[in-house]
Write the structure tokens for this entry.
Amino acid sequence: MLPLSDDFAREMPHEECGIVGVYNHPEAAKLAYLGLYALQHRGQESAGIVSSDGERLYSHKAAGLVADVFNEKNLATLQGDCAIGHVRYSTTGSSISANAQPILANYKGGTLSLAHNGNITNADELRAELEERGAIFQTTTDTEILVHMIAQAGARNFDEALFLSLMRLKGAYSLVVLRPDGLLALKDPRGFRPLCLGKLGDGYVVASESCAFDIMNAQYLRELTPGEVIAFRGGAARSSKPFPAADQSFCIFEYIYFSRPDSMALTRSVAELRTRLGAQLAEEQPADADIVIAVPDSSTSAAIGYSQQSGIPYAIGLVRSHYVGRTFIEPDQNIRDFGARVKYNPVRSVLQDKRVVVVDDSIVRGTTSRKIVNLLRSAGAREIHFRVSAPPWKNPCYFGIDTPEPSKLIGATARDNDEIRKFVGADTLGFISVEGLQKVMPKTQGYCMACFTGEYPDGQRPSGEFTKDILESGKRHG
Ligand code: SF4
């Protein structure tokens, strides 16, 4: 059984990975380390950095948090002025150290290292094909499939081998690739997962989120466009678009939940958009209440937006513990909603006898929401009006987000919202509508909203073994 704190954490959908790249900076590995530190929320299973001094690649990766995996001594071995890094989300059942990234490989075309964020939906097919041709896999990650494809591509040079291989991939990937001659950063043709570009001195940085640039003191330039490849070589950055054009399908959940509020997503402030989502939610789902509180931390901006729009004062009614570890031991005595109590503590003086609007950013299984409602009631809240700044989650994600199987998604199994309300135990319940969500999002971008609508971009819903595998164990994402 998982430690309780993990069990509780698993009720939310999870981002699978964060990636970072540093080009042309004398402290490349240290900067990659700082970048990964800022991206830790995107993955806690393992962390790794591969650096390059222009001739050789140097690697260090292990299971654990960034601060545990790296120290002064091992960072000093990561020589050179280029580096890529990766944090991976915690999963069970998979070999943690073998699947740690970046992957480092030697093949007849030289040495290369790759780190990826996303999920390849035709991975089974490609893996079977490669194994048929004699490839031996050491990990269960999609990233290794790409390494074998590059090695077997029979192309004239590395770039051609990479692009020929990528053309065959379906699904979502943001990727950083390191070779002795430079670094490449790219997004799949639909741009599902984030990847942004920044500038630091004479060099460049890329990262899943711009909060990584802030800690490096780098300047945010922009988000990579769908299908864009940026090659950093010879001191310069060159952008190209080798893939056939496709409509953008940026993961809308990056705005709602995954990204840190201090990040930019598609050049828009995540905090600002979440505040607007909260305001839209207040318009669509008003409540007669005394205070608005957030389920911290990811819902704080939405709760502030709800408060501003409704005129109901914002208050801090739940305090989150940031130091919940994996080694937490459950006391012998059975304590009700223990997992929730470990993570959140209600502020009784704020909640006592109040009619409370509690804003959360998603309801997935409903069990977390129920525990939160119980906590608020136990702290004296008189009425609880649960408001959600995302529509009901009804469908699994195949593009790099770990979600429960459909039978565990309360949005898919409940007959209507009132059934969800009863399960959660709130006095009223309201979700933002899909239309409301679309209204708030910048119109210049295209989004994936398949987990809410069931409309998978380009019919990219995989079938058969892949679906079975990903829903049962689902642990191949990068
Ligand atoms: S299905 Fe949902 S979580 Fe997955 S990429 Fe699309 S919007 Fe994001």
In short: The first strand starts at residue 14 and ends at 15. Residues 192, 251-253, 397, 399, 401, 448-451 surround iron/sulfur cluster (CB under 6 Å). Confidence is low (pLDDT under 50) at residues 1-10, 463-477.
